[in-house]
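User: I'm curious whether this sequence folds into something compact or stays loose and floppy. Could you predict its structure so I can see for myself?
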Amino acid sequence: MKKVKKRLTRAEEFEIMKLVLDKFLWAGFLIMGVGFYKMVSEDVTTGLSWMIAGALLLALFIVMVVREYEVFTS
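Assistant: Here's the prediction. I'll summarize afterward.
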């Protein structure tokens, strides 16, 4: 018996993408928050490196959103 795979609509794919990418957004801001806390309480360079890591995660988030948006518009 051959199984038929269910196809998602564009709207359903977009909703799933938003759920997944929302986690990247929260993780990026959480990491940046930890970095800010470390800058205030401990060492500026350690905190700055945490904040840069959070910014890189948010940049990855932006790249993923732009790529997916281009797929949906074409």
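Summary: Helices lie at 10-41, 44-73. The CA atoms of residues 14 and 72 lie 8 Å apart.
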